[in-house]
Known about the structure:
Layout: H1 3-16, H2 18-54, E1 60-65, E2 69-70, E3 73-74, E4 83-84, H3 85-94, E5 98-113, E6 116-125, H4 129-133, E7 137-140, H5 145-149, E8 154-157, H6 159-165, E9 175-178, E10 181-189, E11 204-208, H7 209-217, E12 221-222, E13 224-229, H8 235-249, E14 260-264, H9 265-308, H10 310-318, H11 323-360, H12 368-394, H13 398-403
Parallel strand pairs: 6-11, 8-10
Antiparallel strand pairs: 1-13, 1-14, 2-3, 4-12, 5-6, 5-9, 5-13, 7-10, 8-11, 9-10
Amino acid sequence: MRISATLRMAFRALRRNKLRSTLTALGIIIGVGAVIAMVGIGNGAKSQVEAQIASLGQNVVLIFAGNWNSGGVRSGWGGAGTLVVDDALAVAREVPAVTCVSPEVRDRDQVLANGQNWNTQILGEGPDYLQIRDWPLDSGAMFTDQDVRGTTKVCIIGKTVANQLFPDEDPVGQTLRIRDIPFKVLGVLHPKGLSVMNTDQDDVVLVPYTSLMKRISKRTNINSVIVQSSSSAAALQVQMAISDLLRQRHRLGPNRDDDFTIRGQQEIADAFTATSRIMTVLLGAIASVSLIVGGIGIMNIMLVSVTERTREIGIRMAVGAHGSDILLQFLIEAITLSSLGGMIGIALGIGSAKLLSALAGWPTLVSPTSVVLAFLFSAAVGVFFGFYPARKASNLDPIDALRYE
């Protein structure tokens, strides 16, 4: 029998029981839709984290004070004052693949200006900070090496601080006070949004690190050093060279642990995206259960269909149809149900992902790969769960089938 004739008979059989066919395909529709929506949510979360990691800058290596053992007590990042400005200057001077370095001092304080006040993060940085972070200015200019050497009272402010302290005017050239010390605003940063720690990157005031250390915090150590390597390929080499240099400068023997922590941008990205990847896999696996349940529903209905149409099968065989024709017909019916369900499910999944994004504000990203895989999986479900009923129909004895009531 020709394939086209078999296809027509399969579609005719499905049209005869429209409601049953629709209900049978519903399991596949829900399954495919759930897979695409859940994977879209997971991919959206992962892409958001990757974008936030990218906002750190390009080829960034971070050096944190801390990570030491004393009497069995272990300190975390920033838990020990083990980094000084000379360490950062030594890294810039002695590690060849390093292009930019910014010593970093962190503080938090109330800032006042224009009759307004706002509690924000104060970062003491070097002039290369914006280049390392790939962070442009909306207006104004960055402070210079001369400002660092002279502990000048100047600052750069983030967009959030600008909106809070200077809501209706240009902040550049105006003055804000940190601990009653006046700082002239040189520029306003371009908005960056949330960081990987889900904090507002725009809620910040940048000052020369010497100004923060000598005029505000009265301290001699720094919290961290931000380094930019010449390329992503050189980042690992830079980390190893920095580790060797700092161990030498801090006089750490071979049996002593580091009193600092070094993290590359790729390590940070892997750590933060690992959770998103696991969540995506789990959500996809849970949603895939619906597809399996839908496949079981197809098998159940196809078995019922074989029983109902036993006499029809006997007549077809009696007039010359082969077992392969019967097998193909029922297999096509099962694949058609699952494939149509898959296509409708794809539309449902994409629509659900966009609806969730609009209503709940969740980031969603439906990739073409997930759509293709979901459709192929739905078709495979039809083949897998439709084969047994189709084979059972093809193995019927024509005489027994004709005598079936």
